Amino acid sequence: MAHTFLQLVTRLAQEVGTIAPATVVAQTGERLRLVNWINAAWMDIQSIHEDWDWMRNSFSFATVAQQATYTPAQAGITDFGVWKKDASRIYTTSSVFKDEMLAVYMEYAMWRNLYEYGNMRTTYNRPVVTTVTPDKQLGLGPIPDAVGYTVDGEYFRAPFELALDADTPTLPDKYYLAIIYRAMMFYGAYEAAPEVYTQGQTEYSKLLSRMQVDQLVSVSFGQPLA
Asked: What is the Cβ-side half-sphere exposure of residue 148, based on CA atoms within 13 angstroms?
């Protein structure tokens, strides 16, 4: 069962030997600092990598005729962080998946020179390629024609703060102590308590290493050429 914001603050208070607040809302003084340190630790962990597995989510949207690029909002996304570039599929909506194909990801400069150049600007067809534009829209190529297509894909959520007692981090609960240990480092630095800081740093480093092995896409290499 996931640990709530209040439970995390309570555990931090236990670890550093102080009194825990009854709620995370409207606190002041040291209790507010405990709340803020847990939140800062959670934001830190989310921001180390933008492609943690636990931040991964899916989207699906219908194309608009002669529209080449789509904002996250147009794709129905409300918590957008970054697109997952190698996860898009496209099919004719009326076919109900029968002609679904994996979309090839193309770097923006190449996509722009191919699909936003000359006659290709007004050449409309079934999209087979995706890209990410400099303003973080999802681009399709060729530009969709009047036939309806559906684009399925994945993205990574943006980091978010905890606010209410029952709010829960989205990382696997087996790693929840990483938030506590990172917060202990904030506490130790503020209170000039090196023993607390060192304990937090040591344990945090161990858990972070485990998370990076477990929650990041593994990089694989092809067979040698010779």
From this structure: 8
Q: Is the pLDDT of residue 78 over 80?
A: yes
Query: Residue 6 corresponds to which amino acid?
Result: L
CB count within 10 Å of CB 195 equals 8
Q: What is the mean pLDDT of residues 175-180?
A: 98
Tokens of 198: 């060192």
DSSP string, the chain: -PPPHHHHHHHHHHHHT-PPPS-STT--HHHHHHHHHHHHHHHHHHHH-TT-GGGEEEEEEE--TT--EE-TTTTT-SSEEEE-TT--EEEEGGGTTTT-EEPEE--HHHHHHHHSSGGGGG-EE---EEEE-TTSPEEEESEE-SS-EEEEEEEEEPP----STT----S-GGGTHHHHHHHHHHHHHHTT-HHHHHHHHHHHHHHHHHHHHHHSPPP-------
Which residue in this structure is represented by tokens 């917060």?
183
Give domain limits for the chain. 5-51+171-215, 55-157
Is the pLDDT at 90 greater than 90, yes or no?
Answer: yes
At 11, which amino acid appears? R
Percent of the chain with pLDDT over 90: 94
